[in-house]
Write a structure and sequence with these properties.
Length: about 700
């Protein structure tokens, strides 16, 4: 049971589906929280909830063919029966005599080394040959392309649907041409350019107990084999390609399952191989497989995010509200008292906010959302008796897990209807969604499937969550000029992140084998920060949730080490579960210097501008070339102190920097012959302001 205003309350595998919705001036929340069995809504509340259900059930809020900003309508270029190109904001997918894309470009960077290929092994490997590509249903926000082809003994049809954010969803059908066909292997191969696949992200729930141990970003040693993973992303710090599927239904589940997916370097490419069939099989009827792809980022990061308090300080997750009494809408007395206001005059401080809390039980122990009580069985993720999907839960986990709201349920309709009313009445404009992408086996939703061995296997309802988020995004864009959506989860699920502005992650470090004590550098390689938390390659602001063990939160050093990593990667940190005053100090120092509108240059690209003499001292910077101002972030990732010499001659066009001082401590540092010497303690950082005039 969640008992405090935090992101905690249960382990990640038993977390509650939750939503915080609101604005600077107010926050509205929905969090399905299991209350005590002795608590019930009143009959009056139940009657009202049942009457309202007739208003919100099966509504069409946010369902439209229109394209919301910043996206543009999908464009199609048909060059011939075998050559077509689909174009949307920043991305291009080309089919040139191929069933699957022969080229995928993301923001002018090519992602594929060679065309994606369907490979069947009978007596020898053979690639499917495309015959034609025809245009299907076309709307401003989507287009369908049907590609047909053949393999020896097989007719192949790939039905592709593209959406305006760049998502491609494919339904692949293979049918024997005549007599049954014996095959040894059926695979889809995605050959990626090495420079476009330096990092790998995966689905947290599918890999937390596997070889990855929940690690993101870092590419494993290759070749690498793994069992089915519903979401894989390959990329660099700027762009990437996501492959995803909602389940391995129809895939070969013969033991061992450890090579359902293979990753290997081959002929200069980094190849993702998806093995639908891995053992001899006779195909006598049609086979169907469904999966998706998305070239990232789907959109640029919001250009004003550093001047937006809700994003720059993760403001609507600062947990500084007054408890209780805000269902079904903010208390008029609170609004009149001014507690329904934004920040208290400090753009980087805590927000004093009132909530409209859509939980089953408020923090003061009173029922406030009868819908959770009435529709629990319909909305829950796991059906009764089937809670052992991921692991054997403890009794407390079971009562929580059975209340995980799911986007396939009518909970989405309820939230949209409730929230749109609040948006129109109170101008609420910030939303927070919690715990995304969990496995689902509730047959009420049509989720899960029965495998050949009789076991019930999960589905990861990525499309349903994506559709729910899209509806929220569209609804907000039609009602407000500006709004912010933050998603929280240990996974990067790009098809869902398309409709978010920020991604909060970090709670995964409260569980073994990667539980943090006092040193984040011991459990998180820099690749994880660059390939996962950085966020630019997903079109979101990266937001970090500290999880230092409680006994270390009263000391500065552990939080300073964490903030070194946060500052080096231009990531936001929430003021919670750490020595939070340090976060406040850093945000205030940077804001007062005016870094909000400066260019950020990360340490992996800064050597040409501000080379450092010490390898372990990384230098990122914020720079205003016109204003002749910059902030250097020097982070010592080593365990020994270093005095680094930083060359400043290329920092400004005039090649001349005249003054430097420490933003946090006020120390003035001399610049001699265009060079700056800075002493940096181990696992710590300095913020050095440099000005030309």
């Amino acid at each position: 049971m969640t008992t405090r205003g935090s992101l905690h309350g249960a382990s990640p595998t038993a977390r509650l589906g939750g939503v915080l919705l609101g604005a600077f001036s107010a926050l509205m929340a929905m969090s399905i929280v299991m209350g005590e069995e002795t608590l019930r809504p009143t009959w009056e509340q139940i009657d009202q909830a049942l009457l309202e259900r007739q208003l919100w059930l099966h509504n069409d809020i946010g369902i439209t063919d229109d394209v919301p900003p910043p996206w543009t309508p999908v464009r199609v270029h048909i060059r011939s029966r075998r050559d077509a190109e689909i174009e949307m904001l920043g991305r291009r997918y080309r089919f040139n005599e191929s069933l699957f894309p022969s080229s995928i470009q993301a923001w002018q960077q090519e992602l594929l080394a060679t065309p994606i290929a369907l490979v069947v092994e009978t007596d020898q490997p053979r690639h499917a040959v495309a015959r034609s590509a025809s245009l299907g249903d076309k709307k401003p926000g989507s287009v369908e392309l049907v590609a047909t082809g053949s393999l020896p003994g097989l007719h192949v049809v790939a039905r592709h649907r593209f959406e305006y954010d760049g998502m491609l969803w494919t339904r692949l059908t293979l049918t024997p041409s005549g007599v049954p066909l014996s095959v040894r292997r059926l695979s889809l191969e995605v050959p990626l350019r090495r420079d476009a696949a330096t990092y790998l992200n995966h689905h947290f729930f599918a890999s937390a107990t596997g070889n990855f141990a929940g690690m993101m970003g870092k590419m494993p040693d290759l070749p690498y084999d793994t069992q089915f993973d519903p979401c894989l992303w390959f990329g660099n710090e700027d762009v990437g390609l996501c492959w995803f599927a909602e389940s391995d239904e129809g895939w070969d589940r013969c033991a061992p399952l450890t090579n359902q997916i293979e990753i290997a370097d081959r002929r200069g490419a980094r190849v993702l191989r998806l093995n639908f069939i891995r053992s001899p099989k006779e195909i006598s009827g049609s086979l169907e497989f469904s999966f998706g792809m998305l070239a990232t980022p789907p959109k640029p990061v919001k250009p004003d995010w550093r001047t937006n308090p809700a994003l720059f300080t993760a403001g609507f997750s600062d947990w500084s509200w007054d408890k209780g009494g805000y269902y079904p809408e903010p208390d008029p007395a609170k609004v009149a008292s001014g507690k329904f206001a934004a920040a208290l005059g400090d753009p980087t401080g805590y927000f004093k906010t009132s909530f409209c809390y859509f939980g089953v039980k408020s923090y003061d122990g009173k029922w406030i959302a009868p819908e959770g009580y009435l529709f629990n069985r319909e909305w829950q993720m796991l059906s009764v008796g089937e809670q052992e999907l991921v692991r054997k839960p403890q009794p407390a986990d079971i009562r929580i897990a059975t209340l995980r709201g799911h986007p396939l349920s009518t909970m989405t309709d309820w939230l949209l209807w409730k929230w749109e009313n609040l948006v129109r009445k109170h101008g609420m404009k910030n939303i927070y969604f919690d715990s995304l992408g969990s496995p689902n086996i509730n047959p009420i939703h049509g989720a899960g499937y029965v495998a050949e061995d009789g076991s019930r296997q999960p589905t990861y309802d990525i499309l349903a969550m994506r559709e729910a988020l899209k509806r929220f995004y569209v609804m907000l864009s039609k009602n407000l000029d500006d709004f912010n959506i933050m998603l929280h989860g240990g996974s990067s699920v790009p098809p869902v992140l398309s409709f978010a502005h920020a991604h909060l992650s970090g709670e995964q470090f409260i569980i073994d084998p990667r539980r943090v004590d006092d040193h984040y550098t011991e459990i998180m390689p820099l690749e994880e920060w660059r390939g996962f938390f950085y966020g630019r390659q997903f079109g979101v602001v990266g937001v970090f949730l500290p999880e230092l063990q409680e006994r270390f939160r009263k000391y500065r050093a552990p939080t300073e080490e964490m903030m070194m990593l946060v500052a080096l990667h231009d990531v936001v940190a929430i003021k919670a579960f750490c020595y939070s005053g340090i976060i406040h100090e850093v945000q205030n120092a940077l804001s007062e210097f005016g870094m909000q509108n400066m260019e950020f240059i990360p340490y992996w690209r800064s050597a040409a501008v501000v080379p450092s003499s010490e390898e372990e001292v990384k230098v990122s910077l914020y720079r205003d070339v016109v204003g002749h101002r910059a902030v250097l972030v020097l982070g010592n990732v080593g365990r020994t102190a270093h005095e680094s010499t930083v060359e400043l001659r290329n920092l400004f066009p005039s090649n001349h920097a005249v003054a430097a001082n420490d933003l946090l401590h006020g120390e003035v540092l001399p610049i001699e012959q265009g060079k700056l010497q800075v002493a940096v303690r181990p696992l710590n950082f300095r913020l050095i302001a440099v000005t030309e005039k």
